[in-house]
Design brief:
The protein is mostly beta strands. It has a single domain, classed as Beta Barrel (Outer membrane phospholipase (ompla), Chain C). About 5% of the residues lie in helices and about 60% in strands. Strands 3, 4, 5, 6, 7, 8, 9, 10, 11, 12, 13, 14 and 15 form a 13-stranded antiparallel β-sheet that branches. Strands 1-17 form a two-stranded antiparallel ribbon. A two-stranded antiparallel sheet has the order 2-16. Strand 13 and strand 14 form a beta hairpin. The longest helix has 11 residues. The two termini are about 25 Å apart.
């Protein structure tokens, strides 16, 4: 796969959410940085992506359109305790020959996911530094092979998250249960007849529980620098497709770090909730 596809997919995969306390922040920020990521090829894979690459950095904090580390969002509802947005995120491609269990099978193309997310603040500390939030996303998955786009099904990851600020470092901890339909699971876990081998039986994926995810993250803004890091643990125990021959691990870690230097900030300030999670 070309380096351009990897670079675009990694930029799309970097994640983030927000805190409760609103601050006066620049309307936009431009920067460049380095990002490192270690993450499974797909949930259940025995091999990881291990990448360190340069990345551009763009944040835009418009009233209805916002761009940050989590991707692109357009807000349909934005109230004090409730917001509903349409967001876009993505994941990395996998070369079939680079993954031992998928050798000889088609590549997994870069995947983008788009759909609505309802976010509701269950509790907020009086100082505005702490928050518990419920997230209810539903997203459609689309893969890209050049200019060819294919719909790959639906996925949802309802969860709960806690946010806090300690010595100007913003921290988050979250738990989510992931559910997906048969088409989504089939893209990763199906083994069709032409790809059956002595080590890889025929398999047709089903819908239902995909995995659970426990994540922690921290971010900090310096004058012209941003630092962020995250770590996640995924459990596939009891997953609908844990018996697929393409699932080799039922407990997996993912982690990433990014350091960015800002070379341009808007002089226009807006009142927005600062990002809390990488």
């Amino acid at each position: 796969m070309g380096s351009k596809r990897w670079w675009v997919a990694l930029v799309a995969a970097v994640a983030g959410t927000c805190m409760a306390r609103e601050e006066a922040m620049p309307l936009y920020e431009l920067g460049v940085g380095m990002a490192g990521l270690s993450s499974p090829h797909y949930l259940g894979a025995a091999q990881n992506h291990n990448l360190v690459v340069p990345v551009p950095y763009l944040v835009y904090r418009g009233e209805r359109l916002r761009i940050d580390r989590s991707g692109v969002k357009t807000f349909l509802v934005d109230e004090e305790r409730l917001d509903i947005n349409i967001s876009l995120s993505g994941s990395l491609p996998v070369d079939g020959d680079a993954n031992r269990m998928r050798r000889g099978m088609p590549d997994l193309d870069p995947m983008g996911e788009i759909g609505p997310t309802l976010r509701y603040t269950l509790w907020q500390g009086r100082d505005g530094q702490r928050q518990v939030r419920l997230d209810l996303p539903v997203r459609a998955a689309i893969t890209a092979d050049g200019f060819d786009l294919d719909y790959r099904g639906l996925s949802s990851s309802p969860g709960i998250a806690f946010y806090s600020t300690v010595y100007d470092w913003r921290w988050s901890a979250s738990y989510a249960a992931i559910f997906s339909d048969r088409r989504y699971h089939g893209y990763f876990y199906d083994v069709d007849t032409p790809y059956v081998t002595a080590q890889r039986d025929h398999y047709r994926a089903g819908s239902g529980y995909t995995a659970s995810r426990l994540s922690v993250s921290t971010t900090h803004y310096f004058d012209n620098w941003f630092v962020g890091a995250f770590a996640s643990y995924y459990s596939l125990h009891g997953a609908a497709n844990e018996d697929s021959p393409l699932v080799r691990e039922r407990g997996q870690f993912s982690a990433g770090v990014m350091v960015t230097w800002f070379f341009k900030k808007s002089s226009t300030l807006v009142s927005r909730q600062p990002e809390a999670e990488f």
